[in-house]
Every structure is written in structure tokens, then in C-alpha cells.
């Protein structure tokens, strides 16, 4: 990932009424029959209503609590809370303004849930509520993308000091001194133990080796130090990989010329999330955990490796987005495993500490918010024939951009 042209996958994508009749005038014996009929109908209605209804929970949610993840993007003339000039925490690859993106319309939308409002991020209120707390954001470069947005929003109240980074700047930590508040970025693209054979340009020399029964110690070793955690999987699960369990190879995904069982990335994602949620449920330390759902890409006319691009300049309308196989399958796995974990915690106070941060729907409506060709200073003028040779990034998000709404959700969910 990072500067690599292969940000997320080293392998090609997977295959994959009538009316009720007339009322007659009542009189004589007919009146008695009619009254009896009404009494019987009333009794039957009460009996039927005494049975539990599968629709009741949905109605209760709709009436009692707003669904923050179901809504629409509406015009926002005020624009973003910061720019690349006011924030120094934007990586070059996501700094679309600096890299010459000419249109600015993608900056003037805000997420509006149906039936309620999502307040804009309030840095002072957030930091004041998080005094002496520590946050950990665990995942891949999409989490890193979100951290950039979060730091930009928070720096409107106070600029943090970077207190740690590893050699490759994949693991980092920032401290807000006035609030004794820390934000840590933890690099764990698979969430489980992995051996990755990539050079600094992201070129693989061998298949990734994944241990389905061992969690990545880079995050489990720090788990007890965090009060709040955002964790997610991502597109790294689509990579060519050999799968291990109990010290032995059990299969692989997209292995060429190897006599191994094709288990598929679906198997990997199921097993990984089961392992992650099992750890969370059984751990003695109980931080608040936000499980963020799949971040969709918006490649059109191809994929990342064969000329795909993302040139739209406005959000999709409802039902305009065409969901792909990977998105549908991976999101389904996420919801299934999260619901199982939530059910296991039901009846205990810990269930309130596990939260689904479902950014999928609001994200798939924003094909205009990706980096596209503006990963680096854009070298070609508009309509240049050479522009087609520029590789597009239709997975990561411009900062500022739609990803800021993810952190509006974080604040709403954490403080409420």
C-alpha cells in the first residue's frame, strides 16, 4: 500500500386487492348476525396481535432511534472545516488540492441521515470529553486515510505532537498535551499474523503467508492501552495468499501452479473476523470498539491494474450505484460476524461497548470523493491524450472530502 501502485490487491478481482364486499342495511335477524360477526372479528384480531411480530424491532428502531447510516448527501455551501493549507497532517497521496484537482464541488456536500441531523465535528467538545483517554485506529491504509481527517479536524482546537513512529511511518502516535489525549495508528492490514514479501515499491516476490489462528500482535499487544478503538478489515484480504492453521498449510487464495486447495478470500475474512470478535469478547479489558464496515471503491471502465478511473464530480443518486461482487460478499460477512458477536454479548453491559460503524452506504454514494489521478501532482493538462496513462486511485479518499463524515459519525457515536 502507501506509495505502491498495488494499494490493495496483488491479484485480479474474484469471479464471482380485492374489496371486502358490500355492507347491507342491518335489521331484524341480520343485525344479530352482524353483531356476532363483529364480536368474533374483534376477538380474532386481539388473538393475532398477541403473537410476537418480526417487524416490531424495525418499527421500534425507526420510531425510537435515528439510523445515522441511512440518509443522503445534501449540498453544503459552507464547505469543509479545513483545507490542505490549514492542516499539515494530510499525506501527499490524499492531498487532492495540492496535487492539482481542479473541481471543488466534491467539498460541498454533507451527510444528512433521514429523520435526524448529524452535527459537524466539534474539536473542542470532543477533546474535552476525551481527557486522559487513548484511541487506537487499527487496520490498513483506509484507516490511515481516516486518521488524517481526524487529526485535521482535531487540530482546529489544538495541534498534536507526534510522539512515536516506526521506521516506515506505518505505526504512529500523536499526543494532545492540553488534554492528555492520544491517537495511535496501528498498522494491521490483515488483523491476523501475516508474512508479507513486498519491497518498498509494493512489488511482491512471494505469496503472502497468513496464519488464520493467530492475531496480529501489533494490535493485540497494545489492546489494553486503548480506551476507544476503531477497527476494520479491507482490500488486503483480496491478495494472493497461502493460509496456515496450527502450523500447517490448509489452502490458499488465487495460488498459481501450486497444489493447494482454493479456499477463497471469503473463507479468510470469515475466519479472521471470528478470531477478532472472539478476542474482543473474551478479553478482560473492555474498551469502546467501533467496527467500521467495508470501504467501497468506484473504478469504472476497468480496475486499478488495467486503466480503471473515477472521474465523476457529483454523488450518486439512490439506487444509481451498482454494487460489485466483492462489496456484496465482504459486507455480508461483516454484518454476519458482527451480529454473532453482538448476540454473544447480549444480556451483559459489554454489548453497549461494541458498535457497528456502518459507513458503507454513505461511502458508496460518493464516487466523486476519491483521489483518482491526483495521487501526485497531476502532470497533464485537461483533455491531454497522455492523461489516460495516469494510474487512478479510486479506493482512497481526498482529504478533506467525504471521509470527514466518518469522523462526524465517530464523534456522534462516542459522545452520545
TrEMBL record:
Gene Ontology annotations for the cellular component aspect, listed alphabetically: Golgi membrane
Domain Trichome birefringence-like C-terminal: 118-413
Principal location: Golgi
Keyword field: Golgi apparatus, Membrane, Signal-anchor, Transferase, Transmembrane, Transmembrane helix
Domain of life: Eukaryota
Localisation: Golgi apparatus membrane
The keyword Phosphoprotein appears for this protein: no
Pfam families assigned to the protein according to its UniProt record, in alphabetical order: PC-Esterase, PMR5N
UniProt KW Signal keyword: no
Membrane-crossing residue ranges in chain numbering: 23-45
Its membrane topology: Single-pass type II membrane protein
One MF term in the entry's GO annotations: xylan O-acetyltransferase activity
Trichome birefringence-like N-terminal domain location: 65-117
Family classification: Belongs to the PC-esterase family. TBL subfamily.
PANTHER family tied to this protein: PROTEIN TRICHOME BIREFRINGENCE-LIKE 26 (PTHR32285:SF27), PROTEIN TRICHOME BIREFRINGENCE-LIKE 9-RELATED (PTHR32285)
Protein name from the UniProt record: Trichome birefringence-like N-terminal domain-containing protein
Organism of derivation: Panicum virgatum (Blackwell switchgrass)
Amino acid at each position: 500500500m502507501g506509495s505502491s501502485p498495488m494499494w490493495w490487491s496483488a491479484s485480479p478481482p474474484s469471479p464471482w386487492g380485492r374489496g371486502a364486499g358490500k355492507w347491507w342495511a342491518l335489521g331484524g335477524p341480520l343485525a344479530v348476525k352482524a353483531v356476532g360477526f363483529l364480536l368474533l372479528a374483534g376477538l380474532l384480531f386481539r388473538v393475532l396481535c398477541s403473537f410476537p411480530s418480526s417487524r416490531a424491532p424495525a418499527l421500534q428502531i425507526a420510531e425510537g432511534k435515528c439510523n445515522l447510516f441511512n440518509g443522503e448527501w445534501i449540498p453544503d455551501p459552507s464547505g469543509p472545516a479545513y483545507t490542505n493549507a490549514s492542516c499539515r497532517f494530510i499525506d501527499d497521496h490524499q492531498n487532492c488540492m495540492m496535487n492539482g484537482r481542479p473541481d471543488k464541488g466534491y467539498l460541498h456536500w454533507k451527510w444528512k441521515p433521514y429523520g435526524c441531523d448529524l452535527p459537524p465535528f466539534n474539536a473542542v467538545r470532543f477533546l474535552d470529553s476525551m481527557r486522559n483517554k487513548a484511541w487506537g485506529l487499527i487496520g490498513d491504509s483506509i484507516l490511515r486515510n481516516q486518521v488524517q481527517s481526524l487529526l485535521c479536524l482535531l487540530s482546529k482546537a489544538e495541534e498534536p505532537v507526534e510522539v512515536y513512529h516506526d521506521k516506515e511511518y506505518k505505526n504512529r502516535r500523536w499526543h494532545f498535551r492540553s488534554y492528555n489525549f492520544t491517537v495511535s495508528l496501528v498498522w494491521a492490514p490483515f488483523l491476523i499474523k501475516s508474512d508479507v514479501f513486498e519491497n518498498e515499491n509494493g512489488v511482491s516476490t512471494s505469496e503472502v503467508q497468513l496464519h488464520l489462528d493467530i492475531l496480529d500482535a501489533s494490535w493485540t499487544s497494545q489492546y489494553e492501552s486503548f480506551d476507544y478503538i476503531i477497527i476494520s478489515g479491507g482490500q488486503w484480504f483480496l491478495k494472493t495468499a497461502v493460509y496456515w492453521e496450527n502450523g500447517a498449510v490448509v489452502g490458499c487464495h488465487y495460488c498459481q501452479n501450486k497444489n493447494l486447495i482454493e479456499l477463497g478470500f471469503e473463507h479468510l475474512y470469515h475466519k479472521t473476523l471470528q478470531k477478532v470478535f472472539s478476542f474482543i469478547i473474551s478479553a478482560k479489558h473492555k474498551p469502546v470498539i467501533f467496527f467500521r464496515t467495508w470501504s467501497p471503491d468506484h473504478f469504472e471502465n476497468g480496475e486499478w491494474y488495467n486503466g480503471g478511473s473515477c472521474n465523476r464530480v457529483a454523488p450518486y443518486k439512490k439506487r444509481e450505484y451498482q454494487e460489485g461482487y466483492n462489496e456484496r460478499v465482504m459486507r455480508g460477512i461483516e454484518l454476519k460476524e458482527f451480529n454473532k458477536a453482538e448476540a454473544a454479548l447480549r444480556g451483559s453491559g459489554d454489548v453497549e461497548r461494541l458498535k457497528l460503524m456502518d459507513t458503507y452506504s454513505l461511502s458508496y454514494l460518493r464516487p466523486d470523493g476519491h483521489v483518482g489521478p491526483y495521487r501526485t501532482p497531476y502532470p497533464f493538462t485537461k483533455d491531454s491524450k497522455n492523461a489516460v496513462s495516469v494510474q487512478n486511485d479510486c479506493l482512497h479518499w481526498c482529504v478533506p472530502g467525504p471521509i470527514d463524515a466518518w469522523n462526524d459519525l465517530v464523534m456522534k457515536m462516542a459522545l452520545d
